[in-house]
Structure formats: C-alpha cells, structure tokens
Amino acid sequence: MTESIPSPVLDPRQAPCIGDRRGDPLPQAARLTPGGLRALFAAPPVWEPELRSEPRFTDRQPAAAAVLMPLVERADGLHLLLTERTHGLSTHAGQIALPGGRVDASDADAVAAALREADEEVGLPASHVHTLGILPVYVTGTAFVVTPVVALVRPGFVLRPNPAEVADVFEVPLAFLMDPQHHRVHEAHWRGERRQWYAMPYQDGPRERYIWGATAGMLRNLYRLLAA
User: Fold this and answer.
1) What share of the chain is helix, strand, coil (3-state, %, to 5)?
2) Within 10 Å of residue 131's Cβ, how many Cβ atoms?
3) Per-residue pLDDT of the chain (228 residues; tens, 9 = 90+)
4) Cis amide prior to 161 (ω within 30 degrees)
5) CA angle, corner 126, sides to 223 and 48, nearest 5?
6) CA distance 57 to 69
7) Does the reported pTM lie above 0.90?
8) Closest CA to 98 of 217, 223, 225, 10
9) What secondary structure letter does DSSP report for 126?
10) Cα angle value 31/36/39 (rounded, 5°)
C-alpha cells in the first residue's frame, strides 16, 4: 500500500521504499575511469534513458536549464561533486543537487550554461573542467527542461560556494552512485497523484547525504549509459 504524504510538503524520507535495483548489472569497472569515460562518450553504445520527465506540480512555463556532472579525478577514483542547496531558495530548497541553473540568453548552449553556473554557484573554474558530452534532457516536476553535462574535473581547484545558493559542497564516489544496489525506489501519493522516484542515500561520515528526485533520476540515466 502506498503511504500518503501530507500536502504541500513532501518529505521523501517519510515515503516507503518499495524496492531497489540490486539485480541490475554493474557497469564495467573500466568505464568508471577517465579513459573509459572518454572512450564511451567518443563512441557511445546504443542505449535508452530510463527517466525523461516527472509529473508536473506547477503551472510555471517550462524553462531551459543545464547542470554539470563534475567527476573529480581523485587518487582512489572518480568522485561526483554535489551541492546542498540553501533552504531559502524558491525551488528544490535544501535538496542535494548538481551545480547548474537556467540557460541564459547570453549562453552559447547548454554546456556553456552548465560551466557558467558551476562557476557562479561553487567557484569551479572552467579551466579545470573537460566536458565529455551530454545526457538526454530530463524534465523536472517544477518544469525545468534540464540538459545534464558530464565532465571530468582536474583536481587542484579551490571552491568558492555562493552562500545565497549553496549551503554545502561535497563529493561522492562514482562507484557508489553507479552501483544499482544503492538505487532505491520510493513511492507516495502526493497532491492527488501516485509518484515514484529514485533515492541514493550516501553516508558521508556521520551525515547522511540524501540524494533523490531529479538528481537521482539523472544519475540513474548515467548508470544506464555506463551499463549499456
């Protein structure tokens, strides 16, 4: 039975977990390396994204957006850089997110927008970023039409998070995020509709980083590419 979550607030941690994807195959270990990712994006296999859109829960006009999936090259493997959004933002407040935002008229394309937003949000310099390619567009329930941009990041940068947008910045090993046993499926009735989403909770020392919703959905699509 699907538990009902009171409207208008949805606390994803209250929603029951209805399963995980531990039976799905692991990506080849070689694909979780800088060289493997370069080769994969240079000649991608035939694959299909699992998730393309979420049920709408806003009347706002759709807006083009882009996010960066910054994979930092560390000694123990690639780590994805993520942010925790401040609680005062109008959308997705307090959630774990990829650096990114709206595509401006001055941006040449979604890649340029993702690089600009990453610099503005956390101070990640474009000089340390090597973009690999983009994933299929993902449409959020808040009507953002998001282009995910996958990139390798050379270490040695010093971040400058914007306190108006970012409460915290942290990294999660890519191997953890691409292991399907960590891909939990949750379900709840909210605002009159049955909704399902992925969550990938990560224990960062004493603190749980609750990765869910659009961020987890886009990461699930990256997993589908890596496992193809």
Assistant:
1) 25, 35, 40
2) 18
3) 223 333 445 678 888 899 999 999 999 999 999 999 999 999 999 999 999 998 887 888 999 999 999 999 999 999 999 999 886 544 444 689 999 999 999 999 999 999 999 999 999 999 999 999 999 999 998 899 999 999 999 999 999 999 988 999 999 999 999 999 999 999 887 666 778 899 999 999 999 999 999 999 999 999 999 999
4) no
5) 20
6) 25
7) yes
8) 217
9) G
10) 125
Q: What residue spans define the domains of the chain?
A: 27-226
Nearest alpha carbon to residue 225 among 165, 150, 171? 150
Scanning the structure block, which residue is given the tokens 């399907």? Answer: 180
Q: Which CATH superfamily is domain 27-226 in?
A: Nucleoside Triphosphate Pyrophosphohydrolase (3.90.79.10)
Other CB atoms within a 10 A radius of the CB of residue 7 amount to 11
Residue with tokens 């969550």: 199
